[in-house]
Amino acid sequence: MLLQALLRALKRNEREYTPKTQVKDRTALKKLTEDKGVNLLLIRDTFTDVSTIGRLFINGESFCDTLENPYINNERNISCIPEGQYKVRLRLARESATRDYLHLLVQDVPNRDWILVHIGNYPSQTQGCILVGNGREHNAVNNSRLAMDLVIKEILNLGGENINLIIKNK
Are 106 and 117 within 8 A, CB to CB? Predict the structure, then answer.
């Protein structure tokens, strides 16, 4: 019921969008992943003193760019989280004092909490979280709001539950 309400709300603001999992040649992939939930894979590939940039894949499909802080011993607010496997859940705007849109909460991060996947373009906006964007520059991602909308729509299209995140460094 909640997912249906979220889908209706997103459709009100919808641009022309065809979920990647519904592209004709990917129909078999969708059927294989439906029962297993949503698998997110973040591959970090660019490391500077200021940021970590990577690529997010949803159920094996390259989807958007990511921006995080550099790794600084997993310290709160200034470091990206360690490589590993994490559970993720949708987090409603009403659950947040600072985010007025649907976003993601990464759960069970060792010695950390409130790690989000949210909108932002620059390292100063991460606060230890993961930002998404369509396009990347040196220490930045672009079109973050659009990327977040598309990520959420894709996750909802896949059922919006049982979301797993694997983070790897290249």
Answer: yes
